[in-house]
Write a structure and sequence with these properties.
alpha+beta; seven-stranded mixed β-sheet; six-stranded mixed β-sheet; 25 helices; about 20% strand; globular
Length: about 775
Amino acid sequence: MLPDVQSLTLANGLRVNILHDPQASRAAALIHLNAGSHHEPPEFPGLAHLFEHVVFAGSREFQGDERLMTWAQAEGAKLNATTHANATAWFFDMTPAKFEAGLARMVDMLAQPLLAEDAVRQEVSVIDAEYNMLTGHTDSLCDAALSLAFSAPARLHDFHVGNRISFGEDIPALQQALARYHQQFFTTDHLTLWLQGPQSFTELTALAERYGHVFAKGRSFQPSADQPLTLQHKRYLQLRLEGSPRLRFSFPVTPCPALTLLRQLLTDEAPDSLLDTLRAQALADDVRVSLPYASGSGDILSIEFLVCEATSAIRARIETTFRQWLQQIRDLSAEHLQHYVALAQRDFSRLTPLDQLRFRTLDFPPAAQNGWQNLLSELHPQNMTRLWIAPDVQGQNTPAQGFCLPVSFAEWKIISDNVTNSSFTFHLSSSGIAHKTDGKVHTTGALLTLHQACIARACLRALCAKSAHEGHSLVFTHVQGNGLLQLSGPQEWVTRTLSTALALLRSPSVIALTQGGRLFEQEQRKSESEIAIRTLLAKLPEVISGSSEKLHEFITAGDDTAVLVFRPLTENTAVCLAATQILASFLEPLFFQQYRVEKNIGYVVSCRFHQTARQAGILFALQSPAFDAETLLGFIDAFIAKVPAMIHSITPQALEEKRAALRESLRVRPADRLEAARQQWLREFAIAPELNEESVAAITTEQLLACVQESDNSLPCEAEGWGGVLQKNQEVDVCFAHRFVLKTYSPPAPSQGHDPGHPILMPETRGMKRG
């Protein structure tokens, strides 16, 4: 059940939305600014994005180690921020005991940012690295191509990510522009504070009143309204990109909760649904529903199908089938709609409080029937653009949001004569409740490769969807190299459904094997176009659990170099597990300070406790456009060599604070029963020791030193116990005993590429987050 929203307005005019969520284990805060990239000065493209970054560098009351970024890393908080066309948001979550301290820091950094020259200069470099990292991002290219279908708003075509060229060399002038942007928009008529957590309404209201008063009162000035979305006459676009073919249908629509209801209908995988029909006919394997552009005056709704083959015949058959489906959803009863609303709300309730706030403010809000009829009136072919993405498109280089893209505007046949009228099935809940359970989750699983997991997913997805429609839950996930089946429902149903699921897995059908093979190929292609460090993280479980080879290579797009080092526990005991978690919490802010703030090596700098493939330990990750893999490895090794000295500098008070934080985390369990059961199964499968207060109390600096004793005097060639090293872009002969060495490299740039005579500009990228 979703928590109710209680709204209030503070004396200074700040709007506050509060959600009391008694089942939550963490509390979350989000500050939403009603301005974004469309409101930045034209002379500084990317300024809104730069402001989003630079406020983390410090504020009047919280600087150095006390600022939100450093504090959050030391305290185990999660934080992030994102800049969109007409909105910007900063958000974090934390255990309730430390939530007030985090809220004080986030409010102060937005109300009283320092915007120091050194910080501005550093974040220009970081955004430039981010820009370089994203130039090969497939979704960004597709969104950029889609913008060519719209004539308005004009700023939809602008460059908003920013880079060194757009910011220029005059840092004082950039500082002044940032200060003016802050003065203009950071007033209470542009801001909304969201709070969600297990605290009572009274407690959360008191926090809002205590810290929300620092924002300046509104000046009765509102950002200028965007022009309404207006389609061009050219509604057919083709974009040449490597990878799996895609077909994207897009509509300008009015924002409403019914968009989430539509997404639930589109992504239904039950027998005779749209997706099941497309899969059975080998037309498309999946669908993704997104909002690549959103504003108060209109959203762009995109429905993108992952196509099985890049042929014009399949393209026409998909559109014909899709249009039949659009016609049939117009006849759905109120009972049908309410059933799918309940399913969507169940999925929404499983999100963390932080993700719930993000979706409410920036993406798909909780589903409702509100706006359904108006939405149907907007979903007609005359209001639709078509974007075909395939490697064999013959297009001419066309500028779009700073890219030079191989695009064609040639029309194609959209209706196929080779499609019979499909009768799609839309389900009803027999009880009218879409998520009744007996309160117990049954979990089973085993180690699976990615290929095996793709086949399992193809085997089970229809059964999983059918179970949800029946009011129960069957969920398959691939986590840390493990395939997990989780069932929740009456015991008789669990026994019967588990038997059916295992039978499907033991004897996959030809269709499931074919679909699973395609899914695996798509995952492989996706990893090649992914951000390098994400590719390496995805490969880590299989490398650790399935290979003793020293060298592994993977292809990724882009020119960044990425290195990932995973160091597992020195011994599988509760004391060692607790010590490793505490040590990681000490190291995380120090690692970030050294390589993100002082050396500023690039966009990705991370050190944290990590669990994967039956192993727990500390993970280090670096990604840089400026340094090669050997140099990045050297940075990590240099940091590790200093760890004993860092441990010796830990005061008894600091160690007790970490012990107290870990003890508190032991009392916290995920509110979502599926997630709680998943974590419990992973602990048991990994034969992980059970942490308790006694093992936490036993942690001393000597125990912390024991976590690194194997690497203390043996770097670089005898580091027993190190579990994985992943590298990118350069041949490196690494001599680490018991380490895996994985490399990724960039394929040669295609000849069509970007226009070499002009700087490449990045479009605004929805969904790409700081952190």
